[in-house]
User: Fold these one by one.
Assistant:
Number 1:
Amino acid sequence: MTAVEDRPTTEVGAARKRKEDRRLVTGRTRWTDNIVLPGMLHLSMVRSPFAHARIAAIDTTAAEASDGVVAVLTGRDVADVQGSLPNAWPVTPDQKAPPHPAVAVDRVAFAGEIVAVVVARSAAAARDAAELVDVDYEELPAVVDLREAAADAVLAHPELGTNVSAVWTFDSAAAGTGTDVEDAIRDAEVLIEREFRQQRLIPSYMEPRSTVVDPTGEQFTMWSATQVPHILRLMLALTLGVPESKVRVIAPDVGGGFGGKLQVTPEEVITFLAARRTGKPCKWTETRSESLLSGHHGRDQLQKLTLAARRDGTVTGLKVELTADMGAYLGLVTSGVPILGAFMFNAIYKFPAYHFTCTNVFTNKTWTDAYRGAGRPEATFAIERMMDELAVELGTDPLAVREKNWIRHEEFPFTTVAGLEYDSGNYEAATARAKELFGYDELRREQAGRRASGDPVQLGIGISTFTEMCGLAPSRVLGALSYGAGGWEHASVRMLPSGKVEVVTGSSPHGQGHETAWSQIVADRLGVPFEDVEVLHGDTQISHKGLDTYGSRSLVVGGQAVVRAADKVLEKARPLAAHVLEAAEEDLEFTGGKFQVRGTDASIGLTDLALAVFAAHDLPDGMEPSLDADATYDPVNFSYPHGTHLCAMEVDTETGQSKMRSYVCVDDVGTIVNPLLVEGQIHGGLVQGIAQALWEEAVYDEQGTLVTGSFVDYTLPTTADTISFVTDNTVTPSTTNDLGTKGVGEAGTIASTPAVVNAVLDAVRHLGVRDITMPLTPAKVWRAVQDATADGAASAVGKAAADGPDATVDAIVAGTAAGPPPSAPAARSTRARCGPSSGPGSTTATSPPPGARSSHVFVPSSVITPGLGARTQEARPLSRPPVQVVAVMASG
């Protein structure tokens, strides 16, 4: 037992290294794919190569005869038992949704959908046999383009009669939270109308998905690399008709999720069915290609915004018309993700009128669902772009426009036009600190100098002043939005006889540092050493109750449940302490891990009371021999972290390459439990948001084939592609929970994308560039500059024509001095390392070698040439006419 006097005075706020890192970093842990059980079988999925097709026939004869194969299952084999995968968020009463089978029966609706499953004695045997399954498809028309899908030109699911799944609307006038937006638009002195594209992204977690099911005990035990073991257990029971008490789900250490493992997957259901059918443990682990192809995707929206304002810069109304791509099916929360953004388009600004409409549309692509931020990054990008557009229209500093319209710190709590009550915030303090660290005024002066000198490398400054709603709760609000679950969280605190403490949490970590943060909270609350606290999680037999981890809810909801459980321990211990000390309860004070009689030296430690309760030799009458306590916490409000992010980008106008010069963010996440955890979450989030701005995009061809199906083409950043960020915090505690904490897990992702895009556009806007669709690859930036220059030259020619032939000739010469825009950039035969100046997979439009077809409009890093197995590499775009060179190399 540790002596009381050795205990730390405070843990909350200490920069503790993560206690879980030792086993994670050294590999002394158990990932799902590490699990090996006696007699275990392995699964391999046969997936459709077509985006939309009828299954005419499946011949499994050769596969069944293959060595090591135990069974081959088709959709017809499991049609009566597989049910339909759940959608827990029907956003409207008339929402349309097709059945979502784990294994397709008659028709496939996206490339990558499972049509058969091979069960074999080894993973290699299963993969080999899967190649022998012969499927006869009758290809059907597929709809891939979001605009075409919204127009019902081709139907993703003909039986529905439309591609529109649901239309969800919020109107501030009807809700009583604001005025009529159409009146604001009619009376506007300044009207900004823009359309933005949120490209499709793929959650690229470090650990691929994996599932093991053991049917040999009294329960079905499933190990899964999931974010949601409790939700998965319930949904498996409901989908497959198995008593919930007979299902145990374990999420061991999980290597990242980013929302991509917030799902009930076809593969989890299939592995369960295979184990039940064979009576043996079964395992499935995805390949990286399967992850990119068939794990759910994120984002993918068309955004049309109309902003009304007065000439002095005061915003008067905001209208949002959203079209969101559901993909082929509705996943667990697919339909609700864009609705989360509905409450954040107004952001930190005092819009008096607001109208939001979202149209959810089916396409023949992999379904979308939650991806880090889930609706909030999309909303923040759009409104922060619009605030920059307003500043440009008014000819004023974009920070000044924001400051004029944001909620001031003395106005909190503040009810927004979307009906949410922001409890606390100080946007002025965060912005002032960010400007100071960034050197905002100095960079603006440097920018002006570069423009005046005609420097080919221009400097742009991007701004994002954001807030977000996180801690997905409270339950009554989620119920009003037709969400199928609540927003509460559960925790238990157990006092062991030895004085150690066990904390059981319903939150299930996948890299956030729960074990460290929860230990710090409990150490402070109970006055025990940090090292004496053990945190248990992720196993529904140990943590029997919980709603898991997503939406930056762990600390503000799960952590608060831990606080309340710890406080209940003290409440239960107080009568016993009074009994032992022969004092009145009201005369006791608890500090430093012990109860002390006020004004005396008489005291007893909590750990001593734990042993006394275990012995139960001398307890007060009626007291049960336990100090253990449970708590279930349902928040009264969301939490609202905020921050100011400033980005400086250098853009080479001759090549389109963008280089990050500086990035500063000052975030306010309320009380900080552990600064190291906060900084880690911010850093990771920043890189993901920056990657959306500059590099990442899931691209499909016209037939619905994913052509960015590997990390050769889906370009993730590396450490070499980023810079050292400058991070800092202001602290405005939340008023709605005991700790004063706010969420942090998604902040960096939400804020960084618009900051980077605004910076790149700010660098080239004076050249006539108004917008560039993400990702802002060098090819896109270069083309935008060339097109703007050409448009400017054409305008000059038109004007000069009125002034006479000599002026016309001069204008033409000036406009073509740099040469005509190239039909395709030059290519090099070697693949270059992409550094920070270009980012991973610097992209440009290129023509394929003769006989090959280009799979998409722009090609990251290299082109795999169909038929030749060769690779070409492009040089940076040039402003003079290039010579097209294609080098063919041996594959390998």
Note: Residues 1-5, 805-892 have pLDDT under 50 and may be disordered.
Number 2:
Amino acid sequence: MSAPATPTSDAGRPVTGAMPTIRPRRPRRARSHRRRARVINALFVVAMMLVAVWAAWPIYQDVSYLIMAAGAMLTGIALAWLGARRGWSWFTVLLAVLGGYLLLGVPLAVPTALSSVPNILGGLLDLVTATVFSWKELVTIALPVGSYQSLLAPAFLLFLGGTTVALSLVWRGGRLFALAVPLIFAVQLFGLVFGSSAVSIPLTVLGWSVPAPRESLIGLAALLLAFGFLAWRTHLARSDALDLAARTTGVRRTPGGLGGRVRRGVLAGGVLLLAIGVSLGGLSATWATPARDVLRSSIDPAVDLREYISPLSQYRSYFSAERYDQQLFTVTGAADAAAAGTASRVRLAVLSYYDGEVFRVVNPAAGESDQITAFARVPHSRASTAQRVTTRFDIAGYSGVWMPGAGELSSIRFAGDRAAELSDGFFYNAGTASGIQLNALENGDRYTMVSESQTEATTLAALTRPAGVTIDDALIPASLADWVDAQAVTSDGAGLAELVTRLRERGYLSHALTAPSLDTAPEDSWTADLGDYQFSPSLSGHSVARIDTLFTALLEKQNNTTATENSQLVAAIGDDEQFAVATALLARHLGFESRVVLGFTLDAATTAGAARTVGAASACLQGICSGRNLAAWVEVAAGDDTWVTVEATPQFQNPLSPIDDTTRDPQYNTEVIAESATEQRAPEANPTSGEDQQEQEEVTGPDLAWLFAALKIGGISLAALLAISTPFLVILGAKLKRRRDRYRAADVSARFAGGWDEYVDAAVDRGLADQGSMTRVEIASQYGSVGGTVLAHLADRAVFGPVPPGTGDSDAFWALVTAERAGLAASGTRRDRWRAALSLRSFARLADAGRLFTFRRRISRYVTTTVRSNRRDTSRMGERPHTSGREA
């Protein structure tokens, strides 16, 4: 700094004996300086919040997310500005944020509810419940989620609250401005913690590979902005301190030398480069793997499917007289792809895992928690390509959780009276391109699916056997392996295709153990639909024992004859349930990955009068699918993430050989006593093992669905009310504990001091000013309370007096404190009493942080501290007077 300027006369000569001239900053210049500082602070906060928006983009990837983020940040800026302009307390700002959240939450966070007034009211309820429950839903749903249901609510709450609180801290938090940095860091972590476990593709720059470039750039941007903000605030504090010194001493401030600026710049740059190097090194070590651990990695999104019977076990029920000709659903739109010459299929369930009894949807070894095979909640829209097919399903007689679909899902929209309920119950498995509906489908439901077009990459004969495939021999019947050895075929795709052809042509179609009744109408009988068909009984089920029986019959027939034509070696009896499983096990025995698919075939070339080809299941006519059209086929992995479809239905034109036809079942003579003879019903067959099943009486009881619905609504309402009221309950509990600790202090003198503090806290919470470092008597006189003056004298006597007080004296003192608090409460309205009970000004007073949420307009930027003489810094009881001064 330069020396103080010496005053001169009009003639230009120095005036001796004059005091240094003080040059205060002009008010207009000071206001401009404060306005510029406030704008720069806001720009730093907005830039750091934009990094948080960028970090959370992969979770949503929708325009509605950008609109929501912009609205939340603008609202937060407006609330923080109003709070600073009008001097709102922290409680008022909290209520303003809550009001903005409820007022703007539906249009910004639940935009799908804006279709009608009832939907808006429902969207408001969804917004309130989403405040508590949507956090877990966000990590149990497939990404991106877009604007699905109310899943924008967590991001909206963070962006709105984070912007408001951060700006309030940097504008009016004083020395606590630095708390804005970890606060915004927490908001930025939202996108990384709740996002996908996969990281971005490594980027190579000048021969140096950068792992997870997107995540690295987010971390680097957050670090640079935080560093720049803290450096700016440090520079601002230093500049203000120099200005204060200049105004106080009259010493003019001159710019620093170039050397000092260079040293500070080099030091700041070195620290910044060190921080960047350490950060990038840590990121390289952390994100060197293609996946990272996030919340969704440890939270199970699966649906428990153990209570649902395997759909393949229910296959034969669709060929009963009641369901054979029953219209299940209608498919519209998928026939366009079939018109081009390719058949389109509707997938009902994809069964990838076999445990020896039934084919299952989920892996029995890993359980329902397996992330690969789990059915998870998905948004309405998923990533897709240009090759898409739109299919509409109108449900008629079909009911169940297994949902008809048309390939890999791109988007889905539910319609009808149960649209919202169906949307909540829809879960999807991307690995098998199949979905389930927990709120079981029923008559009148409809939905539209946009799916990827179904293409066949190659044929079965063109497949090559993959290497390193392990097979569980316990799930492969010995007769299957012997039959394969007897066929003398290769172990590649061509050999598998030949085995499947021989299996189908040497099998015989049969859907039941007994022939349909003669009274059954022809349109309801599967035998009548097959034309000149000779019925042969067959057991249901697809366990290892059932498949072993099938291949044992084929092997015995081949060993007992010299015929080589497939039509002369027909011995296995069954339908798609057994032959699809047998085909899948054949593929696995040769080393190919396989799975069984249950569904329907849509073929535009099929007409009502067309005859069925050998071994082919009938296709849905004009998109109308009934029980007769249900089929099961096999998909074999091609090795390039594609699957080859393999038909498995056996033929029905060539019946069993004459030897098999002449074989009669053993006859047993049973003596019947007429007097005690009773009619015995035939036992029902177990669809999984063929064993008899005892008839069980239907258990009936009162319908408690209304009670469960009422309990659900009540529980959600109670949870929302609890979430809203939790902050207020915490405040009341903290004040109650503070009062109790003061009253029960171990030292009696400390009880008097605590009682006085309780009185002052009650006054401050009711809007009276904190008197800072005044004595107790002075504070009581400022409050104008006669009882307060008595309390001040008693507290001073107990703390500073020569005779220690007794327990009875403290009880009497606390009785006076309670009376004074009651008098303060009686002086205001009920609203004032509630505001005082929930006020945090007393906590801010004790923490010496009252300026954080004391939003009084300042006359001066600087706080002056009044130092009183003849005041002891510490009393003999360890009590230290307050040192926070009042603003000028």
Note: The first strand starts at residue 203 and ends at 205.
Number 3:
Amino acid sequence: MPEQAQCVIIGGGAMGAGLLYALAHEGWTDTILVEKGELTSGSTWHAAGLIPNFIGDLNMAKVHQEAVALYPRLEAETGLSAGWHGCGAIRLARTADEADWHHYVHAMLTQIGVESHLIGPAEIAERHPLLTDLDDVRLGFYTPHDGWTDPSSCTNAMAKGARDLGCRIMRHTLVTGMSQRADGSWDVTIVRGGADPARRRNGSNGRDEQDTIHCEHVVNAAGHYAPQLGAMIGLDVPIVSVIHQYLVTETVPEVEALDFELPVVRDPRASCYYRQEIDGLLIGPYEMSGSRSYGVDGIDWDLHFHLPGENLDVLEECLDFAQQRIGVLSDAGIKQVVSGPITHTPDSGYLMGPAPGVRNYWHCNGASIGITQGPGAGKFLAQWMVHGQTEINVRAMDPRRFGDHTGPKSQFALEKALDEYHEMYQVRLPGEQRAAGRPVKTTPLWGRFDALGAQWQEIYGWERPQYFSPDGTPEAHSFRRSNAHDIVGAEVRGVRERVGVADLSAFAKFEVTGPDAAALLDRLSANRLPGRDGGIRLTHMLTELGGIECEMTIARLAPDRFWLASAIMGQSHDLDWLRDHVEADEQVSVRDATDSTAILGVTGPRARDVLSPVTDADLSNDGFSWLTAQQISVAGVPVIALRVSYVGELGWELHCPMDDLARVYDAVAEAGESHGLVHFGSYAMNVMRIEKAYKAWGSELTTEITPVEARLGRFVDYSRPFLGRDAAQARRESEQQGEPLSMVLVYCEVDTEMGPMGNDVRGNEPAFAPGSDEPMGIGTSGAWGHTVGRSLAFVYVDPQFEAPGSTFELDLLGERRTATVLAESAYDPQNQGLRS
């Protein structure tokens, strides 16, 4: 009989142990962690153990906060020390862009209660007297409560905490295969003794004796073995390991003489971190070129506590800068060089959540700083597994944010991982796009648009124009308004005053068909489905707890055929959501039409004039009304035409076969020439959607909140059952009965500086009551409204600031700016353009 468990975690590093600890505290004590060697014997053991609060993503900062909170208290709970050193940390800023980034992160961390200070060179030298060259430093970002920990100690302490609550750990146990049963549960095949033949338990026939664990859930926490573990079930895991090296010095007299522990320092000039190691120093360079990948073609299962050979030549430039920064390094002897693999994904974020297309298979891997992220990743993945959603927005951690082009052996994954490693300590500016591994997915218009000066962004593998540079000058990226500002303004005015065209193919498209298609979608949609053929509805799909899981446009083409469109980053996620909710006795087919179907958007007051010559369809209001769909022909190509516009103007989305996109575009471009047709990109689209007060999935709309806080009431039909209705309705009723919500979404105008030094809300900025230093809200997105001449934003605030005309303050790059709540959209609140 197979061994039984509720959950099996495969991998005993910081990520696996962090999840085991969190599941135990959630009550899932019938969980087994399987490790092929000893705990930490993969890549955890050789990590430098840094635990930073500083990071540029709000939700990842919440993850890091968990480690800072957990490690100091683990010994009191488990009796094992986590090896915590709360020495604080300083990150150096040399340029105006880095200083702006520090101001942005400082405000963001203030919102979640993380203490941080922006300090000058004099205070930096006081806190770290060995930093002798600070001539290029503008300021330092000082976090007094973080530091570093011993990787093996903290991992074993978390494992002990889980075991004390009833979880089990099977060391020296190798997973050799797994298969899924019809009910979604898993059989995990193991060999006791692990990969080492000397340890294996042999059967009577002399062969390795295999056992099976039957479990409801399986978690891939196998670190740099995660791609090999995924390959057992045909799953691509977008992880590439990169060799990271650090050096430990002999005793340094100047360190030995200190009566306090030096703070960790992160130095972007040298691309290094520095920390104290007993009476010496530890220097960890992230070389800015020439890094080495590891194990792309597979790693021997029998490697434990293994370090590949060192290569100090690639560190020469970093170490030269490090010696300039810390003069005593020039005379320090090197005691040890550690050279070990660290996992990297194409965006350097870890994988935490469901595997695409596979039920009850979860990822908890891919962390490049796993000692920092293990406790938080474990906590929030445990919430997801146990409760169906998390208390934070995990979209940037969800494994399904990567498409099928990111397999571990793909050139894209390899080049992105190396580039992310090289850029580890460099500021990533808003809108900045790295060229590594690109292009991967292009539409037939790529060459035409490139010739027009398109400035490209990569999203889910697709190349999409951000804007069109008339002379080809690239964007000088900044936290403030860049040289693209006026060009984007011209695109916006061209659409608002005349007509624009955009390649919108980088959106997800699904066709849902069958006798039970309507029943499935009705059960999942908070809004009522279209009641007739050709009808269109914007709808949101909720979790059982009422959180906003998806946003989709649904067009009914026939009683048993529906056409759906959603954000491209939700392609795999939304496909899983739809398919996973088909009941056993339902006849429904969900087809992913994203790659085979293009979308050309034609929008603006003259859109009808441009399209009429290239189609026989009646485009008048009587013949083709707003929020309807028809199957028509454009330039001889059959298209599904939707009369919708994400920019708030008269317009159509033309959904056509990808192979026919160029033909449709050429006809539209020729017809539009006499009407002043303008090409526009994602920057202009974002401006116009914010001018129209359109909320976006992933920023305003997340699983953290329900439609009640997001003020989506007109898109929710509570008169009928749907997934998440009870939770959302309870939230609505409690507010109606006088119980205030924690926050609500408002749309506002922000008093920002005009000109190139001005800046707008980008998301994650804290909001304050006038004169207060206590954050009471958070910005989610914003932009300069070129049509209306104002800076606009969405902000979640305390309900007392919801009324139109209410004012509050936002921290924008260290400056307090006044925001005023608006009663309606800044542009065309009566939808006259859409209805024209």
Note: The radius of gyration is 28 Å.
